[in-house]
Every structure is written in structure tokens, then in C-alpha cells.
Amino acid sequence: MDPFSQLILTISVTSFLTFQWLFHRVSPWMSMRISPGFLGLSDKQKVEWNSRTVSTFHALLVGIFCLYDRSHVSTAVLARFLLDLLLIFYYWKAIGDKFFVIHHLAALYAYYYVLGEGMLPYFANFRLLAEFSTPCVNQRWFFEVLGYPKSSRPNMANGVAMAVVFFMVRVAVMPVYYSRMYAVYGTEAFYLVPWGGRVAWICSSICLDIMNIMWMHKIARGCYKVLRSARQSKAAAPQENGKTD
């Protein structure tokens, strides 16, 4: 086995075991101390809570490494996806989702070319910048399961942050990403990538960005409705107080 393959295997195994430890040990221990409401959750909710806790940690770690263009960050993503699939199949009744499985299997196919063939690491890392939006999405679920009203300040602040970050790392970067892709298209280096790799690269990027635009529209509408509702409630409060007086 060449040194590159040994390094990938070492990072994969280490990352996988670390995420298992975080899911089964660290997240429950930490959550009980940070959020007392964790103890009142159902077993199904606790499984998803721990999964999202690990997801948040993983997203921040991967996002930070991607900023420095570390080529082996994709290995940690591979380990995380494998853990996700194992957890989904093991806790299918709690967090089973066929579309989530399809998404992860498609991602594993694409990252085969990144890790197995050493192709397109720059574009893979560029796509992984989207992980920066994951913590806000997970936090939204945490607030919801803990019973925070949508109009509460923490929920509203997280909603605005989610909309802004989601736009910055998934939508605003599209022109830069596709300009780089266009600059490579048709070159000698482009045709060195096998047909399957080009399909995984181009088609998955387009499909993912179509979904990103749809999600961005949904997030923006939701954020606008909550902010508008909060503003109307705030404006109505002085009037109600005046009538009471």
C-alpha cells in the first residue's frame, strides 16, 4: 500500500472512531449539562439530537479546513457519511430517511474519484464550504424540539444567521465555482478525468445547486414571515397597552 493510501485509511478509521465516540459518549454527557431539556426528550429525539450534535462539530471542522484547502479533508467527510449511513440503518425507525440515504450514496460515489483516484480535490473542497450552513440548520431543530417559539429572540437570531450564511456559502459562491469549472472545461486536464468522474462532478454540482436555490427561497420566505410577524406583534403591543389604560 502506497503512503497516500495508508494516510487516507488512517484518517478514515480515526475519523470514524472519533465520530462514534462523540455520538455515543460526548454528546449525551455534554448535552445533559448544557441543556436540561435534553433529559425530557424521547429516545427517538435523543438519537437525532446526538446525530445533529456530531453533525455540527463535523461541519465546523470541515468548513475550517476547507478554507485552507487541505486535500485530505474529504477523508473526514467520507468517514462522517459512513457513520451517518450506519446510524440511519441501525436507528431506522428514529431517523430513517430514504432521500438522505440516496444523497449520501451519491456523495460517496463522487468522493470515490476524489479519494480513490486523487481527482478534483479543489472542487470537492469548494463544495464542502457549504458545511458552514449546517450548524444553523441543526440549531433550528434544537430550538424546535426544546419548545422555543418561532418568535423568540434566539430563534429569530438563528433564523437570520441561517439565511445569511446559507446564501453566502451555497448561493453567492456559485458564479465563482462555475467560472472555475468553465475555465477547466475542454482542456487537456478535463479529459484526463474519466467519464464517470465528469458526470459525478458536473451533474451532481448542477443538481445540488438547483436544490440549494430552492432551499434558499424557502429559507428566505420563512425568515421574512417570522420577522414580519414579530414586527407586527411589537407594533400592536403599545396599542393594546393604550386600550388597557
UniProtKB/TrEMBL annotation:
Q: Which UniProt keywords apply?
A: Membrane, Transmembrane, Transmembrane helix
Give the GO biological process terms: lipid homeostasis
Task: Give me the Gene Ontology terms describing cellular component.
Answer: endoplasmic reticulum; membrane
Keyword presence, Acetylation = no
Which residue range or ranges hold the TLC domain? 1-228
Query: Subcellular location, in the record's words?
Result: Membrane
* Membrane topology qualifier: Multi-pass membrane protein
SMART domains of this UniProt entry?
TLC
Primary localization class, coarse: membrane
Keyword Transmembrane annotated? yes
Per the record, a Pfam family?
A: TRAM_LAG1_CLN8
Question: Which residue ranges traverse the bilayer?
Answer: 7-23, 75-92, 159-178, 198-215
- Do you know which PANTHER family this protein is assigned to? CT120 PROTEIN (PTHR13439), TLC DOMAIN-CONTAINING PROTEIN 4 (PTHR13439:SF1)
Q: What protein name is recorded for this chain? A: TLC domain containing 4
- Organism in which the protein naturally occurs: Poecilia reticulata
Q: What is the lineage of its organism?
A: Eukaryota, Metazoa, Chordata, Craniata, Vertebrata
